[in-house]
């Protein structure tokens, strides 16, 4: 008697996505709340990346064009970055931003990661954190990159404080759709900072480099940690031959 054909439990998705779903399923059975998510494999002939770049949207990031980082490591970006650049992984957790991005069809051909939400349960092509991470986009991007096993991660645009002595909204996409005005009060950064600190502490084998503009703010929570260093924009350029 012929054997029954094995049923594919994950039809129509890539091998990498199947591996991710299976890892999540195994983790749930083991009681693990935040399973390691397998990264996408390198393209044929491409060396596995050992460096990750996490791009926040603080205005200090303006010193470098993300295009210049292509080929130097895997790039993780947030929210409206997709309007001007396509990173290897885009992370967005704000409902309005996810809807904006998905209306362009970006997620069909590119990685868009978010949390499960009823508002876009019918949107095809989203990569979902299971269970929901529940963090802001920037720290979530940093956490995802940290899960992917890079030796070094460079953090850009994580300014925390607002502009104008901390008073005003600090974002490269200020004054555009789904963002506050540059004249609005600065967003409270306490949650971002807490989530960043947790990520750094939970990944002691990753060396983090937070890139700062001259005179940039260094939170006390990110001082004294052995695996994070705050470096200047000039040093970053020198390291990566920019």
Describe the model.
With 242 residues, this protein is an alpha/beta fold. The chain has one domain (48-239). It has 7 helices and 8 strands; from the N terminus they run αβββααββαβααββα. The chain has helices at 15-30, 95-103, 106-109, 137-147, 163-166, 190-202, 233-239; strands at residues 51-55, 74-78, 89-91, 112-114, 127-128, 152-156, 207-212, 228-232. α4 packs parallel to α6 (190-202). It is globular and about 45 Å long. The chain starts with 14 loop residues before the first helix and ends with a helix. The mean pLDDT is 87.
List keywords for this structure.
alpha/beta, 242 residues, 8 strands, 7 helices
Short account of what is shown:
By secondary structure, the protein is of the alpha/beta class. It is 26% helix and 14% strand. It has one domain (48-239).
Secondary-structure topology with pairs:
Elements lengths: L14 H16 L20 E5 L18 E5 L10 E3 L3 H9 L2 H4 L2 E3 L12 E2 L8 H11 L4 E5 L6 H4 L23 H13 L4 E6 L15 E5 H7 L3
Parallel strand pairs: 1-2, 1-6, 2-3, 3-4, 4-5, 6-7, 7-8
Helix pairs in contact: 4-6
